[in-house]
């Protein structure tokens, strides 16, 4: 199953920010250059975690505040707690709905038919 199908489903469910945040965090964790890491951390924070972010993800206040403080000197694990939280949300909510959706069933049927 392609990542594109899941992303399309999340868009239809107004949950695409979760997968985008998770993917951005995965990319961030692979960064080794401190300047690149700092730039990516700032972008992630402003895109997904700032209270007025366009694609704000649903995390608790304490986690958000810890990340806000970590932005002064972001390390390789500053998003780990939020990333785990968002992953659990997708695992327990979005994924089960996706597997039951017409979109998934159609994709699965098309995949079987192409074999």
From TrEMBL:
SMART domains: RGS. Residues 7-108 form the RGS domain. InterPro entries: RGS, RGS_sf, RGS_subdomain_2. Pfam families: RGS (PF00615). PANTHER family: REGULATOR OF G PROTEIN SIGNALING, REGULATOR OF G-PROTEIN SIGNALING 21. This is RGS domain-containing protein. It comes from Albula glossodonta (roundjaw bonefish).
């Amino acid at each position: 199953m392609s990542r594109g199908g899941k992303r399309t489903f999340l868009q239809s469910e107004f949950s695409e920010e979760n997968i985008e945040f998770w993917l951005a965090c995965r990319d961030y964790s692979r960064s080794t250059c401190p300047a690149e890491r700092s730039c990516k951390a700032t972008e992630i924070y402003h895109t997904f975690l700032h209270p007025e972010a366009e694609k704000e993800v649903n995390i608790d206040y304490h986690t958000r505040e810890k990340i806000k403080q970590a932005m002064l000197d972001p390390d390789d694990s500053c998003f780990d707690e939020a990333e785990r939280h968002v992953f659990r949300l997708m695992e327990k909510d979005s994924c089960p709905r996706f597997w039951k959706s017409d979109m998934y069933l159609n994709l699965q049927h098309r995949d079987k038919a192409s074999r």
